[in-house]
């Protein structure tokens, strides 16, 4: 259908995308790539949309600067005939009228509105001062505090908390990490890999505690933190809370769209209003969890563009993510389970001796995989999942058997 | 090492499994960057600058399939023939080089377009 000379949905002549993250930028890119020739506006709270993953990694470490984080170079928007409105904050939506009102009073109208507003870091009510990490301003204020010898408490040992622990150690800070889960991330990577990953903190000089924070208080000696189960409070210079994301649904809610832990969307990214779509971290597909990963946001954008253009949507692929800590590259795809009557867990290599990978199988089908320093194992697993390739667990666990051959059914 | 008119012999075809690649050092290629020799799943050989235009991954360690190589770090895809990037986070195309396979040996012509 791409490349057909008549636009399949002739009625769509203008699209406004609210939010310049990977989801919003992917939406406009995919619209143009698939031949959309109408008006296209991207409202971005930031002057130039930038990429978030480096904020806990290279940007926080100081090895990449803000310019290098741009999702697209500034001139790309003009080339693509996208009106990028930098510094624009949408204040209200009128779905029936197809209008977006900006905080500065301007009103834009469009045939389709795409919400790509992402989310905010959750700030639990434990007192202050606490830092969070979601945007460049957060990263900048955290970075100035990560000097050699600074005492940093990280609350939350998930992907972002662990990445910051690694980066902060690289900068010479003293790091303590608390999480009530021991180990964190078991649901994402499986218990064995989660335990090993969490143990890396200790071997890199990070103190890990399995508890929660009750209160945070500013004192003359520093930030006093009371941990559950400890008799006295401890003093830190900085507290970073990395306990999750609150989807930015306020525009949608005020406009009467259905929301519940995200703006609810169908498989085509359409909200409860037929001319409003939602993509990325702000959206939740009915009956599913929010993915909260970079590639999922990108795919949402592609799907929204296909919906607007009346094109067939691309097949859904198993969700994929990456994360880096202590110089190791971790990737995951699909879902990981513990071994039980229905599921088999297969290790390829040795957990703790990268490169290695771990697969979850249901019957003969791979449903998920995690790899450390072995990205092609995850690329193979992803294709096995997406193509429903039947595999044999003992082959999968034998590093001498080529995954590419197994994928082609030659294993 | 042979002269440029015949190309530089850089590998035996048998040493590069289909779907994989090998990196050839810039000491050998005489180029700024190392060059990745990439073997598509149909058996054909291609060459691109080795360093991903996004960060520092080696494309020789990427996943080669259907005319593209997928970066091993953040999965941007580059066309094996043209070096064109398809998909963020990389935004810049990479440089393709010509390769020729003769008698099971791979010859590289650094700086020449395929
Ligand atoms: C520190 C950090 C590290 C990460 N690392 C990884 C990683 O290694 N791998 C991975 O897979 N994922 C990672 N992620 C997750 C990934 O970055 C997110 O899933 C992704 O950014 C989601 O994209 P998005 O476009 O939906 O939302 P966002 O990136 O949040 O973009 C939404 C944009 O909308 C703007 N906005 C909100 N409301 C309005 C409004 N009313 N008007 C105008 N603009 C508005 C916001 O300011 C923001 O710029 C990381 C996230 C963070 C924070
Ligand atoms: S280094 Fe290749 S996509 Fe990031």
TrEMBL record, chain A:
Coiled coil: none
Domain named FAD/NAD(P)-binding: residues: 14-301
Residue span(s) of domain Reductase C-terminal: 320-407
Annotated TM spans: none
Protein name: Hypothetical rubredoxin/ferredoxin reductase
Co-factor requirement: FAD
Species this chain originates from: Nocardioides luteus
Pfam families: Pyr_redox_2, Reductase_C
Keywords noted in UniProt: FAD, Flavoprotein, Oxidoreductase
Claim: Lipid biosynthesis is one of the keywords in the record: no
TrEMBL record, chain B:
Stored Gene3D superfamilies: Rieske [2Fe-2S] iron-sulphur domain (2.102.10.10)
Molecular-function annotations in GO: dioxygenase activity
Highest taxon of source: Bacteria
Domain Rieske: 8-108
Keywords linked to the UniProt accession: 2Fe-2S, Dioxygenase, Iron, Iron-sulfur, Metal-binding, Oxidoreductase
Stored Pfam families: Rieske
InterPro entries: Rieske_2Fe-2S, Rieske_2Fe-2S_sf
Cross-referenced PANTHER family: 3-PHENYLPROPIONATE_CINNAMIC ACID DIOXYGENASE FERREDOXIN SUBUNIT (PTHR21496:SF23), FERREDOXIN-RELATED (PTHR21496)
Protein name in UniProt: Ferredoxin subunit of phenylpropionate dioxygenase
Organism ancestry: Bacteria, Bacillati, Actinomycetota, Actinomycetes, Propionibacteriales
């Amino acid at each position: 259908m791409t490349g057909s000379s008549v636009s399949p949905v002739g009625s769509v002549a203008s699209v406004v995308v609210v939010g310049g993250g990977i989801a919003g930028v992917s939406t406009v890119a995919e619209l143009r790539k698939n031949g959309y020739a109408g008006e296209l506006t991207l409202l971005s709270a930031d002057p130039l949309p930038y990429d978030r993953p480096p904020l806990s990694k290279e940007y926080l470490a100081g090895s990449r600067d803000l310019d290098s984080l741009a999702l697209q170079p500034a001139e790309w928007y003009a080339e693509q005939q996208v009106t990028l409105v930098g510094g624009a904050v949408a204040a209200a939506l009128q779905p029936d009228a197809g209008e977006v009102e900006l905080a500065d009073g301007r009103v834009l109208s469009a045939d389709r509105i795409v919400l790509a507003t992402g989310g905010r870091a959750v700030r639990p009510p434990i007192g202050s001062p606490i830092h969070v990490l979601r945007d460049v301003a957060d990263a900048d204020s955290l970075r100035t505090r990560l000097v050699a010898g600074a005492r940093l408490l990280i609350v939350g040992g998930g992907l972002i908390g662990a990445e910051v622990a690694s980066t902060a150690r690289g900068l010479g800070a003293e790091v303590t990490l608390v999480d009530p889960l021991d180990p964190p991330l078991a649901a994402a990577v499986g218990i064995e890999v989660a335990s090993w990953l969490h143990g890396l903190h200790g071997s890199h000089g990070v103190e890990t505690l399995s508890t929660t924070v009750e209160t945070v208080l500013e004192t003359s000696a520093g930030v006093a933190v009371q941990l559950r189960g400890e008799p006295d409070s401890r003093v830190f210079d900085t507290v970073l809370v990395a306990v999750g994301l609150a989807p930015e649904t306020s525009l949608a809610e005020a406009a009467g769209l259905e929301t519940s832990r995200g703006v609810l969307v169908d498989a085509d990214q359409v909200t409860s209003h037929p001319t409003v779509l939602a993509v990325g971290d702000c959206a939740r597909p009915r009956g599913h969890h929010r993915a909260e990963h970079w590639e999922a946001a990108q795919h949402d954008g592609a799907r929204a563009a296909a919906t607007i253009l009346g094109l067939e949507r691309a097949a859904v692929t198993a969700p994929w993510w990456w994360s880096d800590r202590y110089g190791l590259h971790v990737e995951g795809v699909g879902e990981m389970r513990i071994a039980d009557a229905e599921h088999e867990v297969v290790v390829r290599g040795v957990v703790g001796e990268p490169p290695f990978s771990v697969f979850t199988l249901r019957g003969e089908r791979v449903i998920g995989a995690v790899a450390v320093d072995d990205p092609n194992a995850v690329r193979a697993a992803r294709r096995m999942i997406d193509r429903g390739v039947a595999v044999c667990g003992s082959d999968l666990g034998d590093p001498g058997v080529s995954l590419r051959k197994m994928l082609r059914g030659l294993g | 090492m042979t002269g440029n008119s015949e190309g530089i012999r850089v590998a035996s075809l048998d040493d590069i499994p289909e779907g994989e690649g090998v990196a050839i050092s810039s000491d050998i290629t005489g180029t700024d960057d190392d060059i990745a020799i990439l073997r598509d799943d149909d058996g054909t050989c291609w060459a691109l600058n080795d360093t991903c235009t996004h960060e520092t991954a080696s494309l020789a360690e990427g996943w080669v399939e259907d005319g593209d190589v997928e970066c091993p770090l953040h999965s941007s895809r580059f066309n094996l023939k043209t070096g064109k990037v398809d998909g963020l986070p990389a935004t810049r195309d990479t440089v393709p080089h010509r390769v020729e396979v003769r008698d099971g040996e791979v010859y590289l012509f650094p700086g020449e377009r395929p």
